[in-house]
Amino acid sequence: MAAVALSGHFATKIIPKHGALSIIYIKSASYSTEGKTNIAAYKRGTGGRSSFNGIVATVFGCTGFVGRYVCNKLGKIGTQMILPYRSDFYDANRLKVAGDLGQVLFTPFDLRDEESIAKAVKYSNVVINLVGRDYETKNFSYTDVHVDGARRLARICREMCVERFIHLSYLNAESNPKPLLLKKPSMFKISKYLGECAVREEFPTATIIRASDIYGSEDRFLRSLATSWRSHGNLVPVYKNGKETIKQPVYVSDVAQGIVNAARDPDTRCQIYQAIGPKRYLLADLIDWFYKLMRKDRAGYRRYDMKYDPIFFSLRVAAANMLSPAYPFGGLHWEGLEKESTTDKPEPGVPTLEDLGVTLTHMEDQVPWELKPFRAYQYYLDKLGEFPAPPPPNAL
Q1: For the chain, is the Cβ count within 10 Å smaller at the N or the C terminus?
Q2: The overall pTM is greater than 0.90
Q3: Is 76 helix (H, G, I), strand (E, B) or coil?
C-alpha cells in the first residue's frame, strides 16, 4: 500500500492512499540528524531496568573484575550500554543479561586502534575507563595500558564530544614511590599516577576515582592471600610481618555504585574521589583473620605467623612465573606483592565514596561469605555452632 508522508518540525504524518486512517509519529523537538543528539530528552519509564534513563555509557574494561559489577548496576537503572571487548566474544556475552532487551550492545576494540575506540564512544554521553593491568605481559606493559591507553581513550572521547569521562585509578599512585620489596620504584604505582595526569590533560572535566585494594568475588586481594601459593603450613610470608602495613580495603560493589552515582551526577565533573573502606586494619590482623575463617580446627583457632622470608618469596615467585609466564599462579608476582605491602594513605580533604551517597560495606559482614569456598574440610557437615566464628580484627 503506497503512502504519502508529510513532514514537519515536530511530527511526521503518513496518509494511506486508500482509507481514512492516518498514523502520526511524534518526533522529539530536540532531535537532530546532524551532530550530537540530546540523548537525555529520550528518557522513558519509571527509572528501572525496563526504562531508559538518558545515559548511553561505554564501559571499557567491562569484562574485568570491577567492570562486571558496574555493568550490572548500570543495567538496573535503565542505562543503554556499549561494551567494547578485545578477546573472545563469549567472555563478554554474559553481560548481555545485565540490561533489558536491546539495551546492551557489543563492539570489538583494541586499545591501540583509534578507529575502534571512536566507534565505541560515537553515540555515548558517558565513558567509563576501567582498563587496568596487575602484571605486565609481552603484549602490554604498564605504560601501554595505564598511561598511553588512558590518554588515547580520553583524547578520543574529547574529540567525539563525549560529555562525561570517568577514570578508575589507584589510591597510592605517586610519581616516585619508595620501594619496599622491589629494588626500584614500582612501575604499577608510577604508571597509575602518570595515567591520571594524562587523563586530566586530555579531558579536563574527567572524574577520577582512586581505589584502594578492592575485594569481592573473583578479586585479586583476598584470593591472592587465600591461595596455597602464599602459605606454608602456619607460615604466611608478609613484608615486615604485616606489622607496618595498614590497609583500608573497599568492597567492589561499593566502588561500582560510586562510579554509577558519579555518572548520574553532573556536579562530579573535575572531581577526585577516594574509594576506601570504612575501617583501617593492620595487614597482619587481616591475614590472621582470613586464615582462621578458612582453617577450622576442633582444638580452636591458632595464630598464624606472618614472617618475612625473602628466600621463600623469591623461590615461590620464580616458580610461579616459570610455570606460567603469561599468568602468575596465585597472583604471585613482585608488583602484586609490592602493592600488598603498601600502606593505604588517603589524602585528607579529598571526598570519598560516602560523598557520592554510597553506604559502605564492612569487611566483617562480607569477607566470611567471600572466603567460604576456600574453607578447609568442605565435605564435613559441621553442626550449628560447632565451630564458632573467629572474632574480626580490631580496627585502628
Answers
A1: N
A2: no
A3: helix
- 3-class state of residue 134 by DSSP: coil
Rg (CA), the chain: 25
User: Rounded to whole angstroms, how far apart are CA atoms 334 and 338?
Assistant: 6
Phi then psi dihedrals of residue 254, to 5 deg: -70, -40
- 238-263 pLDDT, tens digit each: 888 889 999 999 999 999 999 999 99
Q: What is the mean pLDDT of residues 72-82?
A: 95
Sign of CA dihedral 111, 116, 118, 122: negative
* Contacting residues for 276 by C-beta, under 8 A, at least 6 apart: 171, 211, 212, 248, 250, 344, 346, 352, 353
Say if residues 59 and 74 touch (Cβ distance below 8 Å): yes
**Which residues contact residue 18 at a Cβ distance below 8 angstroms, ignoring those fewer than 6 apart?**
1
Measured CA to CA in angstroms, residue 58 lies from 128, 163, 216, 297, 364 at distances of 6, 12, 23, 48, 34
Residue type, 183: K
Kindly give, in sequence order, each residue whose CB lies less than 8 Å from that of residue 324, ignoring residues fewer than 6 positions away. Answer: none
Burial of 32 (0-12, 13-18, 19+ CB in 10 A): exposed
Please check the confidence at residue 300 and state whether its pLDDT lies above 90: no
Torsion of CA 347, 348, 349, 351, to 10 degrees: 50
Counting Cβ atoms within 10 Å, is residue 55 exposed (0-12), middle (13-18) or buried (19+)? buried
H-helix or E-strand spanning residue 282: strand 281-282
